[in-house]
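[job 4471] stage=fold_predict status=RUNNING
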Amino acid sequence: MSTLFTRYRNAQTTRVHHGDIRCAPAVIERARPVRAVDFICTTISPRTATTAPDPLLSSRPHSTVPRPVSVNQVIMVAAIPSMSSPLIRYGLLACVITITLLVTFLSYSDLSPSISRFSTAAAGTFTASDPVWLIATMTLAKSLSRHSIIRATWQRLYASDNPNIRCVFVLSNPGPWIDIVKAENETYGDLVVLSHLEESAHVANTVKSIEFLKYFRDSGRFLSYRFVSKLDDDSFLSALAFYTQYLHPNLNPDLDIDNTDFKQRLMIGRPMDRFVKEYPYPGGQFYTLSTSLAHRLSTLHDENPINDEHEDRLVGRLLHEAGETPDTFTFIKLPNQQAFDVDDNVEDLSGWVHRMGEGAINPHKMKTDEEYLRVARMFGEEGVNMTAVAETYGCALAQHMNHIDAIISYTYPNTTT
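[job 4471] inference complete, writing structure tokens
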């Protein structure tokens, strides 16, 4: 068995991964993502998506061998569109700032995640017959820096060299950002554009996720995957730990999209019963569906096109209004210790909001790039790195105490501590 987590990149090199995607047990299909220019202007709707080019399926005309690309080459690719647009100049400036952050993050061993050429943590976990897991990160066309940071952190640690995991970023219609999106997809080939959706907070918070499931269904790729996850772009994912604890124990070789066995219709996520008692649903920061349940949800929304419900609550509401109950599917709940909103000031790991700690898999609400990178530094190949956690919070405590000492010295200059 060949390792699926071999590392080919050094700290200063970004690799364009056109990768091999393992589509089914013992079947390997060389599938390369379509260029954005080929599909960006195609209106994808539930009725037409079957004929629209599929970025998970279409092939590119050039070599399939992954190419190492330097930071300078990435900048050159991003500079392809006209420089006359202020929006494009802003985008390029954002790219430069992001690259600077990433170089800082990756250049120092004490700041970067533990990445080795061979990940012993992965050995024996993924096998050639395992199903493929699709992880879709919902994001904005203009969030270039966040895309780059996600690629360079948890995707680089756990997914970029693993043919059993496919990661995509899901965008609505990019509007004036179309040239930037084209350049980005030419470089990375991991963007899915739902061009029939308006880029707005309302769409993102209501129907974008379910529309992606419809697109995924109509692309004909359901049989190639066993699980599909929805992830927010302010969430980090310790993918290997999640797979080991939650997906691997629930693999079933007989799983198919028409199966109604509740044990095979899985939903995994952070329970939101503190907000709604009427029916269960997972928090939108990160949830995972078996393809059978994802197919069911996409069909239910065709029949009941609700467009004014929050996207995570919509999952539970669609199932509830269709007469589905916890007896007809299995909801595996992520505890607060593993999925939580990050707050460095809260030490109790059992709460809804708390600092990083042992067992963390899905920290959420890192709104700034600096916050995201700080959390990412506390993870290694096997998951959360408690040494890095202690160092991070130890430094923060020392800075806090120095600040207090400075205030005391200024207020009471003759006081010694």
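[job 4471] summary: The domain at 13-385 is CATH 3.90.550.10 (Spore Coat Polysaccharide Biosynthesis Protein SpsA; Chain A).
[job 4471] exit 0
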